[in-house]
Amino acid sequence: RKGTAEARMPTSVLWMRRMRVLRNLLRKYREQGKIDRHMYQELYVKSKGNVFKNKRVLMEYIHKAKTENARIKALKDQAEAHRLRNKASRERRAQRIAAKRDALISGEQ
Questions:
Q1: 105 pLDDT band (50/70/90 cuts)?
Q2: CA-to-CA dists, residue 25 to 67, 90, 96, angstroms
Q3: pLDDT tops 80 at residue 108
Q4: Nearest by Cα to 58 from 15, 106, 88, 26
Q5: At how many degrees (to 10) do helices 37-48 and 55-108 cross?
Q6: Residues 31, 100: Cα–Cα separation, whole Å
């Protein structure tokens, strides 16, 4: 063999191939609706910043991020429902107390 490893397969070529693969995947996922534009932008910058070694790692990250976002959304919805239920019960209790107070006042007079 003649030539260094860099001369035989330049790292810049490897980098360009990797970026093209990752960016094509991101573009495809965005068009299919698997990721929204906010996640696309975040992952685009991360891939440029050398966070993802290959396509498989990027796909695993996307799946994990989507499940985490779904979990957070479910928890948020659950907390909101809990707040609404508590608010309704507080209002019912206040109405009951007011009714008792009115009955007590009208009974005294």
A1: confident
A2: 19, 51, 60
A3: no
A4: 26
A5: 140
A6: 61
How far is 5 from 22, CA to CA, in rounded Å?
Answer: 24
**How much is the pTM?**
0.76
Burial of 68 (0-12, 13-18, 19+ CB in 10 A): exposed
Q: Tell me what pLDDT residue 74 has.
A: 97
| CA–CA dist 40, 15 (Å, integer) | 20
Instruction: Give the Å distances, CA to CA, from 65 to 27, 34, 91.
Output: 17, 11, 39
Q: Which amino acid is at 48?
A: K
**Exposure on the CB side of residue 81, measured as CA atoms within 13 A:** 6
